[in-house]
Amino acid sequence: MEEMRLDGNAAAGSLAELFARDVTAAMATCAKCGKEMPIGSLFDYGQAMGVVLRCNGCEATMLRLVRTPGSLRLDPSGISLLIVAALT
Amino acid sequence: MTAPAARLEWKVARVAGIRDETRRARTLALEVPDWPGHLAGQHVDVRLVAEDGYQAQRSYSIASAPGSRYVELTVERIENAEVSPYLCDVLQIGDGLEVRGPIGGYFVWRPEDRGPLLLIGGGSGVVPLMAMLRHHAVNPRAAARLLYSARSLDDVIYRRDLDALAATSEAQVSIALTRDWPSDWSGYRRRIDRAMLEEVAWPAGDGARAFVCGPTPLVESVATLLVELGYDAARVRTERFGPTR
Predict the structure, then answer these.
(1) Which CATH number describes the domain made up of B117-240?
(2) Helices B126-137, B159-168: inter-axial angle, 10-degree rounding
(3) What tens digit of pLDDT does each residue of B129-149 get?
(4) Tens digit of pLDDT for each residue in B161-188?
(5) Fewer C-beta within 10 Å: chain A N or C terminus?
(6) How many CB atoms lie within 10 A of CB B178?
(7) Would you call B237 and A41 a contact, using CB atoms and an 8 Å cutoff?
(8) So where are chain B's domains?
(9) Fold that domain B11-103 belongs to in CATH
């Protein structure tokens, strides 16, 4: 249900296990529709098996992060470009 | 923070203080080892582990301003939930609590961010906005407005703190009560709607930065309305807390 959805902010802790820096402010381009938006604004429908973030325009899956006993599996194929601001 | 933080690790924080805010909300003041400081709007993850190894994890926004003595979390008790009843009813001063943070870089306000500040929150969504307001009070480079929606006056978290901030700083506070209000209530008596935003929000041309937090339906409705009122979508930042409870 739409009212249950969270956003990329909720996934930030999990993403921090993999990325050296916070990426919620990074701009991600949807590989399907081309919309550019901050990771923090992606839709998070709260999957039990990990993180699934969707485009807030066309709802295509942009990023999946699944934890298995031996690994963290990242599928970023729904992001065609990720722009992270340089540190000042 | 401008340097990359050390890798985010779980730490055992100590509960240094407890303060009841409303009948359902409680603030925990935590002493977190090696706390690197935080930005207004960031949150922490909290993890509870049962004796059988079952883990439950939730995120809680930091209520205290950057530079405060303790890391304060305001937790709202949700009936039959896994984590909040423990934090609100069982946890005591001196207890340990596993936390990880600070987390987040999108839903944050820094004093050097230009433009007037517009903070809109529903229910416990006011928590990260309070960190921003508290930080703004000692860094008042531009004016700030908070519009806070709650069910009744008894559910307004930080009521006294908000009165104090409005009286002494560059902040204006408006409260919308949605279910119940005193007969002499002079604030809003309905859910946030377009007409209310037209009265409270900074005009679109002022270059305001908006932060909207709370139940998902409220956040999405308000964000959409702000853009309809002419706000640049890039200047409307959102943090969804999930369904209305």
Answers:
(1) 3.40.50.80
(2) 30
(3) 999 999 999 987 889 999 999
(4) 999 998 887 799 999 999 999 999 999 9
(5) C
(6) 18
(7) yes
(8) 11-103, 117-240
(9) Elongation Factor Tu (Ef-tu); domain 3 (2.40.30)
